Amino acid sequence: MTQNLVATWKAARDRLREAGVDTPAYDARLLLEAGAGVARADILTDPYRVLSAAQRDAVERLIVRREAREPVSHILGRKHFWTFELRVTPDVLAPRPETETLVLWALERVGAGGGLRIADLGAGSGAIALAVASERPQAEVVAVDVSPAALAVAQANAEACGLGARITFLEDDWGASLPGGSFDLVLSNPPYVRTGALSLLEPEVARYEPRLALDGGADGLAAYRRLLPQIARLLRPGGAFAVEIGQGQAEAVWALADEQGLAPEGVRADLAGIDRVVFGRRGARN
Question: What are φ and ψ of residue 259, in 5° steps?
Answer without folding.
Answer: -60, -30
